[in-house]
């Protein structure tokens, strides 16, 4: 920086110029507020610095104005003397003071100019950094807007997707509820039908059991009668043998008597004494004939009784065979009823533990557990055996 020569009698005046700084025009109001805030802070700091510089300059002028100033160097004096040759010693001293003051003021002015240049460069750097920050923030804002738009689109698409899923699930739920209601109706209807069929089968089994007991009793009675008839037959056979033996003996006696009669007829003339014996023999023969007739009647009666007993025995055997066949038929019917009952129970279990296409499992009530006010009494009257429950559980598993 070049220093101009100031005349002797020329008054130097310093004018402090204030330059407005930090006026930036932007589109965004927030950035304007931030810039104004930063510029206001920088202006406040610069004003403080300028006030301090003014105070320092005033202090230097006051020190230089005093007669015993300490800042005068011997090198500066010849230069001022060369510039302005004083005519009188008093004038030289005042001129030296004036030159010294002016040089100091020029140095202070140059320092202030340097400081102002540095401040302007710092302000430019600050404005550049702020503009870069603003650009970066604008870029971030645009990116955030793009991300927000993407998130908005994704949120709307996900919302539509979930609304569709909720609608589908509602329709599935309504279908499942309708299916459940129909299954409940079918279950109640099937339960009523199965209950009626179970009651019918139970009544049928009870009737068949009663019929079986009656037939068993009849069979037992027939067996007793058969045993008694066998015993009577054995007794009659013994009596028959006894009568046959007796008939043989009487026939032998009769034959002997006839032989004796023939011998008496031959010797009648010879032995008249034997007449009395002959009469006795005749009476005995008549008695024997009557006995033989009685024995024959008894034999015929025994034969007819034996034939009747044999006929009754055959009839009893036929009755026994028919009752045995009826018993076998009833046993086969009972087995068929039990198999039919097991099939119905399996079908009922399958109906109770069926699954639908949507994956819902319907855990329904056990059909063997009765429901209703009179169910406990029915269960006590007709309890379900644990073997049946085990067979039902095995069939279901």
Q: Label the CATH architecture of the domain at 166-396.
A: Orthogonal Bundle
Helix content: over 70%
Describe the main β-sheet briefly: none
Oligomerization? single chain
Query: What pattern of helices and strands is seen along the backbone?
Result: HHHHHH
Class by alpha and beta content: mainly alpha
Treating each run of at least 4 consecutive H or I residues as one helix, how many helices? 6
Rg from C-alpha positions? 76 Å
Mean pLDDT: 69
Strand elements, count: 0
Pfam family, one: CC2-LZ
Keywords: Coiled coil
GO biological process, one term: negative regulation of canonical NF-kappaB signal transduction
Protein name: TNFAIP3 interacting protein 3
Describe this structure in words.
The chain is mostly helical. It has a domain at 166-396: Orthogonal Bundle (Helix Hairpins). Helices cover 80% and strands 0% of the residues. The protein is built from 6 helices and no strands. It has helices spanning 29-65, 76-83, 89-266, 275-352, 375-381, 386-396. Helix 4 packs across helix 6 (386-396). The model is unreliable at 1-28, 67-93 and 355-384 (pLDDT under 50).
């Amino acid at each position: 920086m070049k220093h101009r020569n100031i005349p002797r009698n020329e008054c130097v005046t310093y004018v402090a110029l204030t330059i407005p700084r930090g006026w930036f025009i932007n589109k965004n109001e927030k950035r304007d507020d931030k810039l104004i805030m930063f510029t206001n802070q920088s202006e406040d700091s610069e004003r403080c610095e300028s006030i301090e510089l003014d105070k320092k300059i005033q202090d230097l002028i006051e020190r230089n104005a005093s007669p015993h100033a300490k800042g005068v160097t011997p090198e500066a004096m010849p230069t001022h003397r060369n510039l302005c040759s004083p005519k009188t010693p008093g004038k030289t001293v005042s001129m030296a003071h004036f030159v010294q003051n002016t040089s100091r003021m020029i140095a202070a002015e140059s320092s202030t100019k340097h400081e102002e240049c540095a401040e302007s460069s710092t302000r430019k750097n600050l404005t550049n950094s702020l503009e870069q920050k603003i650009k970066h923030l604008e870029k971030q804002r645009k990116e955030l807007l793009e991300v927000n738009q993407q998130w908005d689109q994704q949120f709307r698409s996900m919302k539509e997707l979930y609304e569709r899923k909720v609608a589908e699930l509602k329709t599935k739920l309504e279908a499942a509820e309708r299916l459940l209601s129909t299954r409940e109706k079918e279950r109640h209807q099937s339960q009523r039908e199965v209950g009626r069929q179970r009651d019918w089968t139970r009544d049928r089994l009870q009737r068949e059991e009663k019929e079986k007991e009656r037939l068993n009793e009849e069979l037992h009675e027939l067996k007793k009668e058969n045993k008694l008839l066998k015993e009577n037959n054995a007794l009659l056979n013994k009596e028959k043998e006894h009568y046959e033996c007796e008939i043989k003996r009487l026939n032998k006696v009769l034959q002997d008597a006839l032989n004796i009669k023939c011998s008496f007829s031959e010797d009648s003339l010879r032995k008249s004494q034997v007449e009395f014996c002959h009469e006795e023999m005749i009476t005995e023969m008549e008695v024997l004939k009557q006995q033989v007739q009685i024995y024959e009647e008894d034999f015929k009666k025994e034969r007819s009784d034996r034939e009747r007993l044999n006929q009754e025995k055959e009839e009893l055997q036929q009755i026994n065979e028919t009752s045995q066949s009826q018993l076998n038929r009833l046993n086969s019917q009972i087995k068929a009823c039990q198999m039919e009952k097991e099939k119905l129970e399996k079908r009922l279990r399958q109906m109770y533990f069926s699954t639908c296409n949507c994956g819902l499992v319907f855990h329904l009530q056990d059909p063997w557990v009765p429901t209703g006010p009179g169910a406990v009494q029915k269960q006590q009257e007709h309890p379900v055996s644990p073997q049946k429950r085990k067979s039902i559980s095995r069939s279901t598993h």
